[in-house]
Amino acid sequence: MQTVTLPIADPEAEPRAEALLAAGELVALPTETVYGLAGDSASGEAVAKIFAAKGRPRFNPLICHVDSLQMARRVAVFDETALGLAERFWPGPLTLVLPLAEGAPVHPLATAGLSTVAVRQPKGVAARLAGRLDRPIVAPSANLSGRVTGTSAEAVARSLEGRIPLILDDGPSPVGVESTIVRPEAGRLVLLRAGAIARETLKEALGVRIETPEAGAAIAAPGGLASHYAPQGAVRLDAMRVEPGDYVIAFGPDRPEGLEHAMAIINLSPSGDLAEAAANLFAALSALDSPDVTQIAVTPIPMTGLGEAINDRLRRAAAPR
C-alpha cells in the first residue's frame, strides 16, 4: 500500500480523509496531544485494521473521539461528575471512561468487549472529521504497538509507511503526551493514565479524591500495558551518572556526573519547564530509536504536574520487553 502525506492546509486533505474513513479505511491525523490512527468507530472492519496496522493486542481498548458533548452522550452514560469534567476540560486532552450507552455507534472490538467506553472531545481535525461522519472516530496513537509514539507526520511515516493510505501533516504535536484518562466514581476519580492534564489540576477543579488503580488490575483504558513507548535500546531511569556508551536524555540545567562520556545529549527542557519537556519527550525517544543506540540514560524528572505523565511514559519505555 502506498502512503500519501498531505499538509492539513491542503484543500483536498480533509475531504480525502473523510472519504477514506467513510469507506472503512484508516487515516493518521494530528491532535493536540499526539498523532492518532483514526478509523470509523462503528465499523468492525476499520477497527480491526487499526489493530492489524499497529500490531496492537485486542484486549487493549481504543478511545472514541467526538465533536461535541451531544455526540459523546450517544456513546456513553454521563453522571453529574462526568458532565462537570466534560464542561470544564473539553475540547481538550481529557479522556473519560464511562458506562457504554445502549445503541452506541461503537463496535465491540473498540471497547475490547468491556461494558465501558473511553471518550474525549479533541481540538482540531479529529473533531471535525467525527462531525463530518456524524459518529465518533477511534484513534489510538499512530505508531506500532509498544513503540515510540509519533508526534510528527515524519515519525508516523517511519512507523506506519505502507500500512495506511493517508497521513495528515500539521507539524509537531503541541502537547506531546497523550490525554489524561480518568474513571469518575462516587466522590472520587480513578486516574487510569497520567497525561496532559495534571492530577493537581483535576483535584483543584473538582475538589474530589484522585486515586490510582490497584496493582495488577485488569486493563480498563488505553495505554495500560507495562511495556510501551519503547525505543530499541535499553532505557535507564533516574540516572545520576553517565556511563561510557550512554545516550542521554536530560532535563533542566543540572549536569550529571560523567556527562563527558555521553554519545549524544538531548535535553527535554534546559530551563526545567515540564510542559516543554512533555512536548519534546517522544521526539527525543524517536531520535534515539535506532539499532546503534543500545543504552539510554534518563536524568531525574520531578513527579509534580506534567512530570507524572512524563515519568509514566518513561517507566513504560524502560520496562522489560
TrEMBL record:
Domain YrdC-like, residue spans: 11-197
Binding site for ATP: 56, 60, 116, 141, 193, 229
Localization: Cytoplasm
UniProt keyword terms in alphabetical order: ATP-binding, Cytoplasm, Nucleotide-binding, Nucleotidyltransferase, Transferase, tRNA processing
GO CC annotation terms, alphabetical: cytoplasm
EC number(s) given by UniProt: 2.7.7.87
Family: Belongs to the SUA5 family.
Name the UniProt record assigns to this protein: Threonylcarbamoyl-AMP synthase
Biological source species: Jiella endophytica
